Every structure is written in C-alpha cells, then in structure tokens.
Amino acid sequence: MVQKKSILIIDDHPLFREGLKSLIARNPSFEVVGEAGNGREGLKLAKDLKPDLVVMDISLPDKSGIKVTHNIRSLLAETRVMVVSVHSKIDYITEAFRAGATGYVAKESATDRLLQGLETVSRGEYFLDSSLSHKVVKKLMESPEKETKITDARYERLTSREQQVMRLLAEGLSTKEIAKKLFISPKTVENHRANIMNKLDLHSTIELVRYAVRLGLIDVDLWKD
Prior knowledge:
Order of helices and strands: EHEHEHEHEHEHHHHHH
CATH superfamily of the largest domain: Response regulator
Strand content: 5-15%
Strand order of the largest sheet: 2-1-3-4-5-6
Oligomer: single chain
CATH class of the largest domain: Alpha Beta
Largest sheet: 6 strands, parallel
Number of strands: 6
CATH topology of the largest domain: Rossmann fold
Distance between the termini: 60 Å
Radius of gyration: 18 Å
Shape: elongated
C-alpha cells in the first residue's frame, strides 16, 4: 500500500479550509494532517508534523505567507509548499517562488487545479496556475530581483492584510467590493484604509494609486481612460 502524502493547510478562513479539506479528500494519495489560521501557528505545526506538503495562503493575519513559506523551507527542505492565493500579479508569484514555494494556484480556480498542482509538486516539479510553463517559472526565479522586489520602508511597515487591502484600493475596488472579496466587514476595510494612509503618509486615493504604481504593485493600464 502506497503511503499517503501528508498535508498541512495554513489559511485564515475556516470555511475555505473546510473546502480545501473536502477537495483534497477526493484524492486517496493525500491526507490532511493539520490546519492553522495564522502564520505563527502554521509554522509551529509544520515543525511538529513535518508534512510532505503545505497549502499556504499569502494574506495571513499575523505575517505574510511568503515569509512563512521561507521559514518552513529553511527548516524543512523536503517539505513542498503550494501557495493558494487571491493574488495573481507577477510580483507575488515571483516572491512566492523565491521564498521556496514550488506551486502557485489562484483561489478562484482551486477547485479545478489544486489536486493537479499537489500531484505535480509532490513529484518535485513546479506548478503554476496559468499559461506559464515550468521553464518560465525558472526564468522568473533567475531574473534580477530588483525587477520585482518591493523595498520601500514605509510599505514594509504595513501588515500583510494592510498590504492586501492597499493593492485592492489602488486597483480601484470599492470598500464593499474589498469586503466581499476578503470576507471581512466594510468597517474593517475602512479601518485598514485609515491605517494604510497614516503609515504611508498619503492623503488621497490618487496619491495611493501613484504610490502603488511607483512600487510596481499595480498595472498603469488599469487607470488609463
């Protein structure tokens, strides 16, 4: 009998974790052995359980999933990390692979692509939920880091959630749209917005957009008439 691959899920949404567990249960080759709702708990479980695979969200309430990915891969070289995220911009994808992830799936297509991705990364191969091939992923990892790395000190002071809200604001989403997308209340979005503007010393949405464009966080084409 072939031994099942153990999986740890790290995602801050309980309902989404339940959905992932149900999806993973369809493949008898995999077994979910643990779950965590934040990065700190996830890192502790990874150390204790030493899973074969980790399904990782990027936007965790206490720290970036990219940093947790780096920590896990530093401690557990054999553990593969599959990022499942709402983010699809190239800077997130590149940072995730540089941190040690070997797979990346968009949350909106997880139902169709996650199992395929887990099978791929469990074989030691790269998987990216897009038209990009294995060779392109390797090229992204080998490209000059300055092209995608975000280094502004003010931006680094934002929490992972604030960075997520900031990008959505800069992309033109309304408070209600962001709340729906992130499964939080409009009031929470407004609180994050106030904190973001204060930490970045910005005073208008236009300033926020210009700042995001300067850091390469959003595409300029989004704001062309």
